Amino acid sequence: MRILLATAALALAVPAMADHHELPDADAFAATHAEAISGAINHPSRADDRARDQFRHPAETLAFFRVEPDMKVGEYAPGGGWYTRVLGHYLGGEGQLVGLYFDPTSGPFNEEAQQRIRAGASGFPAEAAEFTGLPAENFSAMTLDAVPEGEAGTLDRVLVVRMMHNLMRWNNADSELKKMRDLLKPGGMLGIVQHRAPADASADYANGSKGYLRQDDVIGYVEALGFELVDSSEVNANPRDPANWEGGVWMMPPSLGGDDAMDAQTRDLGESDRMTLLFRKRD
Questions:
Q1: Would 283 be classed as within a structural domain?
Q2: Which residues span the domain enclosing 264?
Q3: How far apart are alpha carbons 154 and 137 in whole angstroms?
Q4: Which residue from 217, 224, 278, 281 could staple onto 7, CB 3.0 to 4.6 Å apart?
Q5: Total structural domains within the chain
């Protein structure tokens, strides 16, 4: 965490680069792509997912990240299919969804875990096809230590949803984000949704081990790795979450990881308070 803070301070001391790329207004973007977004969000394959839309705001998040239907988009650490179904149907006509899996040689991964990561990447197209009902040919995947030749600089967007805390506590955020940056086109963008700690949370609490990170720390850290913050949103905010649970974010729904008394306290609070950040790859 000390490294994170020092890096953040360095980044904030460097003047931000001028924005030479016009970013469309999120509301106007949503209106322009309303039909495609609605078609993805309301697809029958998402029938069991919709209960969480009120907390995850997929339509608003897609629009905020300015994901266009014909883009090539990397979904980092796909799992369970929730966002894969949204993105798969949204990009299923003209775009392409790419599953981006951990570099198995980074982080706390033993040999068995490394094999599972590689198997996840190789099986992603078939799994995504099963999740969405779309052809497996619509999807591809890679582990970040084995980027296929010609893939660098081809992605329009990379989305990292509720994963930054893991990268921080596993001490591989630096290497993983650099590899994601290499995959983005010039001017390509990185979208992050992350459980948010209060600004005055202690460094020991907001180091990823509790699932929460401080927003300013995330911004400074990512900017130090060759990105510039271009927009932030409160679309996934939840002021009812104090984000100070001794057991971390896993005390909140949907995990409800406490005892009966704790679960009764958190059950009706909704999901965690989340920052939503959009960065552009620096030239």
A1: no
A2: 2-277
A3: 18
A4: 224
A5: 1
